Amino acid sequence: MTDAPAKEPRHIPWLAILPLAFFVALAGLFFVQLYRGDPARLPSALIGKQAPRFALPAIEGTPGVGFSDADLTRGSVSLVNIFASWCVPCRDEHPLLMQMSKDPALKAMGVQIFGLNYKDEPQNAREFLAQYGNPYDRSGADRPGRAGIEWGVYGVPETFVVRGDGAIAYKQIGPLTPEDLRNKLMPAIAAAVKASRGSGG
């Protein structure tokens, strides 16, 4: 009885695994870039430029007339806060917005707070403001999300500081914290107020 011939080990040509190795390396690079650094430090292409053209109706069932880019060019510094009832971090930052809406120093500077309600159902937006309070001087509904796209929104919430001439001075990505308010947003507001007064805006 003769022994069966030994099977030669199969060799996988390195050219066959090259595409797979390339894909794994590329996926790894994307993963690292996605989670690297602080997303709140992402630059905005709109900083220093005029706020985009938009006109939003009021949230259905709420008093008011909404707001538009024209409301941001009346000489006073504005905050534009992007929010939604489905956004959990929006609830986390809302007490700070309420605090700012009652801040006598901001009132003395003429700062107004505008709310851009992003891709939300009117009833849910109304219930959100009824439950957590309404810090906005005026708010508008962006149900299709087109205005948010024009503003370059990465996610919700986001807050913009807009100078009195309508130029965007600062962008906060993600929910405000007390540290952000103290170290970033308030200095940005003060600088925008100074720039607005200096430009005669």
Description:
- It is a single chain.
- The protein is built from six helices and seven strands; from the N terminus they run αβββααβαβαββα.
- It is of the alpha/beta class and 201 residues long.
- The chain has a single domain, classed as Glutaredoxin (3-Layer(aba) Sandwich).
- The chain has a five-stranded mixed sheet. Strands 1-2 form a two-stranded antiparallel ribbon.
- A hairpin with a 5-residue loop joins strand 6 and strand 7 (168-173).
- The protein is globular.
Could you give the order of the helices and strands? HEEEHHEHEHEEH
- Average pLDDT score: 86
Number of domains: 1
Q: How many beta-strand segments?
A: 7
Instruction: Profile the largest sheet.
Output: 5 strands, mixed
CATH architecture heading: 3-Layer(aba) Sandwich
Quickly give the structural class: alpha/beta
Approximately what portion of the residues adopt beta-strand conformation? 15-25%
Major sheet strand order: 5-4-3-6-7
CATH superfamily: Glutaredoxin
Helix content: 25-40%
Oligomer: single chain
- Which topology does CATH recognise? Glutaredoxin
In angstroms, what is the radius of gyration? Answer: 25 Å
Distance between the termini: 102 Å
Low-confidence stretches: 29-42
Apparent shape: globular
Enumerate how many helices there are, as a single number.
Answer: 6
CATH classification, class level? Alpha Beta
